[in-house]
Structures are given as C-alpha cells and as structure tokens.
Description:
The protein contains 14 helices and 23 strands. The protein has a 6-stranded mixed β-sheet, with helices on both faces.
Amino acid sequence: MKKILLAVLFTASITVSEAQEQIPHSINTYMTPEDKLYALSKIWSEAKYNEAFFENVGEKVWDSTYLALIKPVMESKSDNECYRILRRYCAMLKDGHSYVSYEYDPTITTYFDKFQIIVRPIEGRAIVSQISSKQSRWIPVGSEIIEVNGMTTVKYLKKMIIPYISSSTTQYLMDKSISEMFASLKNDQYDITFLTPNGDEIRTHVVHNVLPEIKIDSLVPNEKEWKFVELIWYPDDVAYVAINSFNGKQVVDDFEAVFPELKKRAKGIIIDIRNNGGGNTGYAAQVLSRLTPDNDLVGASWSTRVHKPDLMSWGKYVNAKDTIGNIENKKMYEIANHKYFEKGGESNFTFDVNRERIVVPMAILIGHTTFSAAEDFLVFCDNQKHITLIGEATAGSTGNPITWDLPHGGFLSICSKKDIYPDGREFVGIGIKPDIESYLTVEDFRKGRDTVLETALSFLNNQKK
C-alpha cells in the first residue's frame, strides 16, 4: 500500500509542479499521443529488465508509477512537457547513468535579459561564481541566491529541480541541481533574491533570453581556457596537473606531452580530477600507468542482471522460503523478481614492464562531480602507497549504459552493469571517499582561495620533511 501511494503522490506532484511553471515558449509539438505512450513504455520496459540498480525503486513502484503516468504523458501539451515528465520518471531509478534527455529542448542555462550568470554549488549553497562584467558591481561575485520565484532556494530546488535530476548520490544530486537551477526555456521568467557578501539583499526580475549586448559582455572573473590537461608548477618542484576529462584520446596525447617534464622535474604531483566527468576507462588507465610502479592495474569488478524467460516462468511459483538451501530455486526466484545477477568480469589493464614512469608522492584532488571513468581511475589507484586522495566524496556513479533513441529527438540511457571494488566494497551510490577531507568554503571562495589545493600542497610539503 505504501509503495502504491508513493506512485500516486509522485504523479500528483508532477501536476502541481508543472502547473506552477511558466507557460513554455519555443516548444515542439511533433509527438502524437501514441509517440508519447511509446516513449514512456520504452523507459518502463528497458529499465525493468536492464537497469543495474533497479532495486533503488522496485518493481511495484515502477509499475504503478508507469500506470499513473499514462494519462498525463499522453495529454501533455508539448514534446518538451512530455520529456520533462519522462525525465522525472527515469530519475526515480537514482542512477547517474540512467536518464532521459531531449535533443530539441531549447533550454537556456546562463543567459538572462539583464546579465549572464554562472551559479556554483559551494557548501550546499547557490553562489554566483561568474557574472557579466557590467553587472558585477550590482551583483558581486560571491553573492548567494537565497530566493527564487517566492520560494527559498532550498524549497525551489527541492520542488522544481531535484526531482528531474538523475543521480546516484545526494552529494552529486545537490551540486548538479544548483548548477542547473536556471535551466529552462527561452522567455521563462524568474524573480531572484541575492544576498551579497556585504549582507545586502538585491531583488530582480529577469527573463531567459540571449541578447547581443549580454552575449558580447565578458564574464568576471574571466573564463579560463578549457583543456584536457593543464600543467602548473608550484614551489619545491610540485607539479599541479588538472585532468578535466577522459572523454577522448586527446587526454592521453596531452598527458604524454607533459610527461617528460614531469619525469625530469617533479618531486611531488597533484592530479586534479574534481571537474572530470569521465569518459573512457581505458584512457584513464593509460594516464595512470605513467604514475604507478605496477604493470597490472586492477579495476572494478562488475556484474549484470540476467533475464531467462524459461526460469522466470518457473520462478513465478517459487516462494522466498523455498530458496533456503536451494541454489536452483534461489536463481529462479531472483530471475522472476528481476534480482538475479551474474558476474561479468574485471576492468583490468596490463602495461609493458619497460614503460617509463614517475613515482613520487602524489595527491589526487576529488570532489562531488568526479564522475564515471574518473572514479574508475580512482579504483585503479586503490592501495597505491604513494597516492593520497584529498577533497570530498565523489559522485558515486559509473557503469556501461545501453542507449536508445526515443521519438522526435529523445534519448534514453540505462545503466547495464554494477561496479564494485575488486575486494567487494561498494562505491556506486556512495561515492569514493577521500583519505583527507577538504572542501571549499564560501568564505574562502570569496577570498579567491582554493582550499583543497592548499591542503594538497601542505600535505606534499610535509611529506618531504
């Protein structure tokens, strides 16, 4: 009864939330009611049989919510509205690799009619990290957003943003929700209240739009050029290497380009993957192979759900008590209840014993948006005596998704495998924890300090004493 009630409340909350939003502009209306029902049904069926973390929601809630959503999905007034409901449905899986997106959703995230603004999550608060230079005296960098559309920021996020974000952990969910709190359609309107670092409240009404005078105005602070790999030297030959993505072979090429300098000079190395959203685990392994004495890198072990129709037909008649001491009954029962997993393998890599490396004291900076293949990188680092993790718990989401196209520009991703440490420890849904916890405070951000980097520099300097 409780699970069925949750589904009813879920549907009711969608109706309330949608009713409170601005009327969508620049929307697409190509999908027929049948298209919309197909998209909903595709999500329902593929997750039910393939989602590695299906137990996060459970079959009863998943099925009852599907039934409850048929009418609102088919009667949705636009493709945009339909996919917003579908995104919320998929977010129930609580898996960062399982989500719905819509290619033609004309969302705007940072531009308004008065300014461009970048919002950064710091200590769970929505802080202005960049703003159009002409408006920076009016709304200084470091100001906090404390109210949106008549709601406190916390209430606004909880009601209007968080339910639509696919995430495996609370820390990633909160950070991503704050970063995307203004992602919506052109011409959508907001009443925003800022609290400046001096304690002044500034209230303004803004409209999503990309105006020429706003677009050409530079942001303050200036945006730093994004690179796969960035090398900076600190005193006492400590190298800071930011690796911002593993999504492309260029990250390997760019790291290889700086490796000779590291090999020649570095007495300590800081690897920063706080903003690394993942990519290819193989590329991550290639980078790490230059930074460890080991030839064999042992990665995550994984398992996947198995569906066998014949055993499912028999398992429907097996009760939980029948599984005690009976392996075959247990297998049939778990298959019939979508809970049976088989071990798939390990993500291991072997490198040439003659491969040139540098092994010095190393700190790896991690954070809430260290995601997917970047977390696989950390699994490879486990038990490396010269490596220390510094920062905050990671996003706690990795895996290998199956993908499908949905009608008129939709896209579905469902995670197909469950990864764990080689020794059985879990990190998906939890996050990989640092050896030394350190995090950026709002006060330090306003002073221009990178607290986590300073912690790593201090740690490496102490290692030399």
